[in-house]
Amino acid sequence: MATGLPEPEPLLTLVEALRCLPGVGVRSARRMAYHLLQRDPEGALRLGAALNQAVTDLRHCERCNSFSQEPICSTCRNPDRDASLLCVVETPADQNMIEASHGYRGLYYVLQGRLAPLEGVGPDQVHFGQLMERASDGQVREVILATNFTAEGETTAYYLADMLRARGLNVTRLARGVPSGSELEYVDAGTIAWALMERRST
Amino acid sequence: MATGLPEPEPLLTLVEALRCLPGVGVRSARRMAYHLLQRDPEGALRLGAALNQAVTDLRHCERCNSFSQEPICSTCRNPDRDASLLCVVETPADQNMIEASHGYRGLYYVLQGRLAPLEGVGPDQVHFGQLMERASDGQVREVILATNFTAEGETTAYYLADMLRARGLNVTRLARGVPSGSELEYVDAGTIAWALMERRST
User: Fold this and answer.
1) pLDDT digits (tens, 9 = 90+) for A76-104
2) Which residues contact A65 (CB under 8 A, 6 or more apart)?
3) Which of A101, B2, B40, B87 is most deeply buried (CB count within 10 A of its CB)?
4) Do B14 and A51 touch (CB under 8 A)?
5) With an 8 Å Cβ cutoff, is A55 touching chain B?
6) What class is the B9-57 domain?
7) Which CATH code is given to the segment(s) B81-173?
8) pTM of this prediction?
9) Assigned fold of A67-173
């Protein structure tokens, strides 16, 4: 922003620092800074402390690659989980959604990313080696690919399926079809085409 | 988000803390937290430090109510500024825009808010008393109301104009009209109506 106004240094530093948040440009960063300073300085201090603590205390679980305070997270240490099933997701948010479905009792692997050739994210950037090692522990019988049904997620799934099958693993993908509770009239044609192709006897 | 997954405490605390940012809900907060932890932990630490420093070091300038490290900000201390002119704006961002126009050499008063009856923000919440005191310092000859041309900004301007005139001050408002560089075909009818009403001889 072109300005001749001498702004205090801590304000400029804060605006610049807020831009590390995804999707936040100069204008949003300024709005956030003014809001915090004017309306919620306590929230700002709490956020500062939370950022420090999270970066200091959290690491990646050595088994599932999700965030954890311990070397192995509590989910991976849970003996009630079925160690023969490994569900691969892009992010911890996806992992949460699958968990919230209460339809899965196996273990997880969180990629923390996906292949996105158009953005220059290739296999070297996503580090699939750790997943291959994890899936080859001798206990895993089936790897369920639960990457998103976007172009990037599908590309990632195809790529991983090849690598995992080459290691003799049974690879599956989440079913594609009409969303639960939806009316056909409002479902897109591509989804209906998939649902027809993958129809099953009842 | 309904979830049975035991998430690490520092992650939950960070997500909750990020919600103090304006316009950030649970889902955005999670996306931000994952992004920072996975892609930019250094940015997160920098942001944490910047938040602490800004809240600790910044205060409101006693004269203009903008953010400052000193009791009186450098703009208010600048002897080259015309102390007979006082421009009232809603936010420091608006102040910056006026400064960037290079068309003003007077002083400012930053409301840090505006009247918004529909949101329950009345004169008691915006604290106009400090402005009245500031405008009555004996040096100010003209108060330029530069609140936004929104319903809230206009309400604030009307209200302030009454209070300031009652104190014998000369009160003006930024001119309304066709934006510089714009084609009439693409200007809204309300703006053209104002521009006609407030036309001036050349």
Assistant:
1) 999 999 999 999 999 998 998 888 888 89
2) A109, A110, A111, A112, A130, A131
3) B87
4) yes
5) yes
6) mainly alpha
7) 3.40.1360.10
8) 0.79
9) Dna Topoisomerase Vi A Subunit; Chain: A, domain 2 (3.40.1360)
